[in-house]
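Self-study notes.
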Amino acid sequence: MSFTWPLDPQDLFAERHPQMTLGLPAAEVDAVRAAVTEMWPDRPGGWVHEWSALAARHAAAGRHREAAQAYGWAKFPSLADAPKRTALARQIEQYVLAAPGFPVEFERRTVTVPYRGGTTSLPVHLMAAPGLPADAPVLLASGGVDSWKADLHGMWEQLALALPVRLLLFDLAGTGETAHLPMTPDGGAEVIEGLIAFARTLAGAGGGGGNGSNGGGRVGHFGISMGGYYAARTGLTGTVDAAVVLGGPVERSFARGRGFAFGMDGIVGNALGFDAMPGPAAREDAFAAFDLRPLLDRDANGPMLVVNGADDVHVPQHDTLVFTGRRDTRVELVPDTGHCAISRFGEAMGLIVPWLRATLVG
């Protein structure tokens, strides 16, 4: 199920320009911005058309990594119609073609996990620094409702080269290549629990106790934006050995009466599985189930690092600061930046990488 909704594409450029220029030259992004006049129609001036034209030029020149980035923006912000789904398929195709040139080891694999009394399968990407021991600790990592595993390649590459861990990259339920499953609190968490169990087998569970090259089954979870919500769940329940929550909504984000900015109401509505824009009551009923207050009231968490920008328009400061004072928990608000500290991302990574090195690797 999916739907389109009224959305001014220039609002997305205004919000996401710093993110767009992380993987593509600013001049190219600005040229697409000048050409785009409408969001959904697949024709000249349309978002999908103009981003896909840029991607196709990169692909024809053999610049597959840049092509994957541009197709990633073509399918942004949601798989709301057929042209968006086509753009995602082309992004993955170009990303796999680019993989032999990555400075990291890369493998694309399909993993089957338990789901609602049966099983479900989803593609995942495994990434590691060259020569990393096969049984090194594993770090699950995901983006949120609109930025997915292939979109964030530069970030994952940076982590893989900085840490002696293997990254297991996936899309949340309701998004990307896991869009066949609706995003729900428990269903999405069940998929991640299955991935954690798989990760423990990769990390040498059952042997070695975590010393030397043997990961001892140690698994961490790094979630960005809505991915941070699920990382907060695994951290609060102690399901993983280290949890990093970057810009994650956990409580007040799901309160009744809260609005959405920059088209996020339609993005979230698609991820939740609605087939038309939900009204406020339906959206709030669906969102209320995500509230992590029951877990926040417990004292079962493992080591956690909770980070966000101080000026986030999507996630209230409360949802970061609510972790202050918990045991085994570090809380950081990065000043003068917004959601997930994207405009000061180097500072955020300067907190995250050393913490993971000390906590997950030891």
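Second protein, same conventions, sequence then structure:
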Amino acid sequence: MQNKIIVTGGCGYIGSHTVIELIENNYNVVIIDDLSNSSEETLERILKITGTKPTFANVDLKDEMATKAVFKKHKDAKAIINFAAHKAVGESVKNPLMYYNNNLCSLINVLSAQIENNIEGFIFSSSATVYGTPETLPITEKNETQRPSSAYGNSKKIAEEIIDDVIKASNNFQAISLRYFNPIGAHESGLIGELPSGIPNNLMPYITQTAAGIREKLMVFGNDYPTKDGTPIRDYIHVVDLAKAHVLAVKRIINKEQDMPYEIFNLGTGNGFSVLDVINSFEKVTNSKLNYEIVERRPGDVPQLYAATNLAKEKLGWSANKTLDEMVKSSWDWEQKYRKEQSSKESGSAF
């Protein structure tokens, strides 16, 4: 009997890669997604890769009654992985209420439905932004969380506090928060990758879309940060490495291996790369020049974030394996394959 796992936001970038890893580890996956920043076509791509099409429910998790109904239908689930959230830092600074409404109301409804149906395990898609501007580097899980400079980051910080309070009030509720650093890259098949709606907010899809001619040029937000080349430094991690950590977290919860009811792990490589490092890597692996321009800083960005990952290695048995060049190449392979697919479809529709 396969263990059933509910994955909210499972058609999104990190969610879809995690669904693939779960299926390949013999889990029965139920995706709940409102497709606000993803596509139902992702289900067909997952089928092509794994040979299995996950169960899918198109539900807006801000709708309390709809959320309760779909959870009741799948109350035999062993755990939930909650990816459902808006995630653009810049957008969240401009529209904070949209982020608090979406990211927190959906979380509260999911937790309520989970408790109502006695589903014990919860894995939360958190973020390194909860550390704010860190006082020490690399960042360990013992670093104090701070008030992040964006509503996106603050929604993650508040969400972790909500989960902590719910655990303290419950006898059998177990949770793990995975604090991501900067996921990039795509599945080795080239069938699935990062595909944001509209103008990308993250660096890597903006780079690949610029190289593909979708965007005129890449904007580099600031070159006056206190870093080696003036551009912000981040800990970029391959999305498949990240997805594998979720499978290990699921096993840890289901097998009741946790040291405490609520655990937190950083997920990164432990290495910091600047924006210009990523651009230089892209130009090297593609043997091409990228059109980019240095512009003013973007509100909400901090100078440096990179992880200490010892705890994840020790407790989850996990570590990141992909190099920056491998991450960048897989992103470009995905972009090229996707644009070729779209071009073929458009050509086919003309006949």
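Instructor comment on the second fold: Residues 324-349 form the longest helix (26 residues).
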